[in-house]
Amino acid sequence: MGSAPEMAAELLAPLKPDRKGLVIFAVNDNPEVDLAAGGSHWTLLVYHRPSNTFRHYDSSPSHQTDGNGRSSGSTQAARRLADAVGPALTGAGGGAGAAAALPSLVEVRCMPRQTNCYDCGMYVLAVARAVCQWWLRGPEVAREGAEGSTGGVTKVEAEWEVQERAMRAWLTPAHVDGLRFEILEIIRAKAGAASVGA
């Protein structure tokens, strides 16, 4: 069996990840990736091509580091995933002429924190939605950074960080409760439509 980057490249190839500006991964902290069940925490890993970074959003401060200051299980899981998919996203290690730099991993420290032990998945959904909205609002800035201008990448990353810091104002427990209600309503509507069509 091949290495994790080779397997990731093979699995992701039909999606053409090396052509995407933004790629989003939900990450579970289960260290036993061969087992379907396991893990206790979800985080979000976002590949942002203009800055060539993976941005890791973790809503649980208790999962950031262990008692000795080492990276947590969720950070380690994000690192493993980033290491596995990074070459497929950048084209690095793809054979002759592939000289793209592998992305760096940025821990987003200004990520709002959940106030309970069960809302991590809701925070993943809320941040994923926000990240997609940021991307759609800023294509001209994203293109500037993607064209290789060092100034553009700095500008793009700075704009992204402004958006990340602004999350503290709106990504609150009340927002998460509203999102949970919104998702439940979507599920109910879809279930009702499916039962009518059956």
Automatic annotation (TrEMBL):
<keyword id="KW-0788">Thiol protease</keyword>
<dbReference type="GO" id="GO:0019784">
    <property type="term" value="F:deNEDDylase activity"/>
</dbReference>
<feature type="compositionally biased region" description="Polar residues">
    <location>
        <begin position="56"/>
        <end position="77"/>
    </location>
</feature>
<keyword id="KW-0378">Hydrolase</keyword>
<comment type="similarity">
    <text>Belongs to the peptidase C48 family.</text>
</comment>
<feature type="region of interest" description="Disordered">
    <location>
        <begin position="56"/>
        <end position="81"/>
    </location>
</feature>
<dbReference type="InterPro" id="IPR003653">
    <property type="entry name" value="Peptidase_C48_C"/>
</dbReference>
<dbReference type="Pfam" id="PF02902">
    <property type="entry name" value="Peptidase_C48"/>
</dbReference>
<dbReference type="InterPro" id="IPR044613">
    <property type="entry name" value="Nep1/2-like"/>
</dbReference>
<dbReference type="InterPro" id="IPR038765">
    <property type="entry name" value="Papain-like_cys_pep_sf"/>
</dbReference>
<protein>
    <recommendedName>
        <fullName>Ubiquitin-like protease family profile domain-containing protein</fullName>
    </recommendedName>
</protein>
<dbReference type="GO" id="GO:0008234">
    <property type="term" value="F:cysteine-type peptidase activity"/>
</dbReference>
<keyword id="KW-0645">Protease</keyword>
<dbReference type="GO" id="GO:0000338">
    <property type="term" value="P:protein deneddylation"/>
</dbReference>
<feature type="domain" description="Ubiquitin-like protease family profile">
    <location>
        <begin position="1"/>
        <end position="131"/>
    </location>
</feature>
<dbReference type="GO" id="GO:0006508">
    <property type="term" value="P:proteolysis"/>
</dbReference>
